[in-house]
Amino acid sequence: MSGALGGEAPGAARDEAARARDAAPDQAPRLVRPAVAYHTSFLAALAEYHDEARHLELDGLILADEEEFDRFISLVNLGVDRAGELDAYLAALQGQRPPAPPPDGYVPQTTLWWVAGTEYLGRLALRHRLTPHLLQEGNHIGYEVRPSARGRGHATAMLAAALPLAAALGIDPARVDCDVDNVASRRVIEKNGGRLEREENGSLYFLVPTR
Description:
Order of helices and strands: HEHHHHEEHEHEHEE
Largest sheet: 4 strands, antiparallel
CATH architecture: 3-Layer(aba) Sandwich
Radius of gyration: 17 Å
């Protein structure tokens, strides 16, 4: 997810997110830890992703079972202390061997869901640090919005909400990237103050201030 600033001034996205929270604190979108409370909406979002041939490693029929879903989100939430176990779990669901770890190992990662009430709207992943490999081909923050919720400013607000969390981990600036042809994601990053660092192998790499 990756320039000169365009459109809004740096920090405008954060101001918009704050105004939304103040206006309707119970239903305004927010970042939360994955939980069973979002089970039904998550499955609906997963079906939308499957229609795009994405996230096919997640079996909706298996995750429809509440105990299995609870196991899944428990592993998602363990990404800080036991990074890599979720990948092994997903491989096992498909009857495959665990994938090989990245070239220089896994890094701690916090995964948060973007929700409004009990509606699942998207997902954000925050890496606590970057290895030499990830400094070249990765990022601190990745995010996605479910298909039916796109085009409503959620990605911009989600990234804005994540920047203070990155700052609390001592990350400044945060590295965020996107594909060269992903105009929407580029605008999200630039609205949050992103500055283009480089273009390489079809990707744009940005530095985004977190403070």
